[in-house]
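Quick one: structure tokens for this chain, please?
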Amino acid sequence: MTTTNTNKLTENEVKKAKPTDTPYKITDGGGMYLLVKPTGGKYWHLAYRFNNKQKLLALGVYPDVTLKEARIKRESARKLLQEGTDPSDAKKEDKRLSILKAENTFEAIANEWLSKKTKLQASTVKTYHHYLSYIFEAFGHKPITDVTSPDILALCRQVEAKGTIETAHRIKMTCGLVFRYAIATGRATYDPTQALKGALQPVITTHHASMVSPADVARLMQGIQGYEGHYTTVYALKLAPLFFVRPCELREAKWADIDLDAKEWAYKVSKTKSEHIVPLSSQAVALLVELKAISGSGVYVFPSIRSNQRTMSNNTVNAALRRLGYTSDEMCGHGFRAMARTILDEVLGYPIEIIEMQLAHAVKDANGRAYNRTKYREQRHKMMQHWSDYLDNLQIGNVITVNFGGIAI
């Protein structure tokens, strides 16, 4: 194509071009012309050669695309040709990417993510929809790869300004869950919520301090794996997240109550005095086998440093967490319960009834009767094994391990 003899047309000529019985062309030079059809339609085209083949590129329809705009498109196409690129191929790729972006908006991926969580309770799904309504209004229309940390922070700041601090944190957490799903399914490469750690106002709460973000839990599990100290503390720290029982129940665990063959620990709940079963994962069994070789001659699984006939101190696990660098506002022994409850529900998608049963909370059936200790026994065994496997994955750095199947009840 030549750069000479272009810009022959005027806007007035283009505007006044009248249709005839047959289509005709009026040229602007440089391969570009206006095709006037008998119906009155006026179409910009660019004729060019690429790899010794004559080709045609549509530049748009007049007057939606003006003469000036058509010339800009012509020059862009000529530049591509000079770089060895076929403008028609470039146009097709732009269209493909545009369609892909439209399909991969934050809202589209968030709805897909939530649709996979089929085992969640209706109330939980409703809560997610509540948080997502804020997000969709702010940037749901954006391709997920275009959503940035400042976008999320700006939304959270608006929510904070209304005094709903916890909602701001929940919005951030929900964004993170959607981003991790997008990463897992190949539609994103990073989670911008990770850059917002510490950026929001803290939630004032009287609940036990806990880690509920998979990324934070990953660091916690890595710290626990590398902890060095007295054997009682080491094993208590490793088993606490696998059991997620109350600290006093962990401390007072007895060998007589643990059936390694059946993979179960049966005891009476400290609060209600009702009987309870903790299914033991293969990881928990392996640790208990190791520990029994050391402390199995005594009554307690976690004996005192001074005597195997007494339990370890009630501050043993908390002291170990402090040694790992966690303050009392960040993590405590009781926090393993909140950690498990949150992630089993919000990340792994287990029915809340099963989780509550495993936490030994007062769960009742549809008739108001308390469930017995063996309720959901098989499902709880599967959940506890999955939980241990999940923590193993986090410990080795796989922070996007997700299961959207859950367990039917």
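The longest strand covers residues 53-62.
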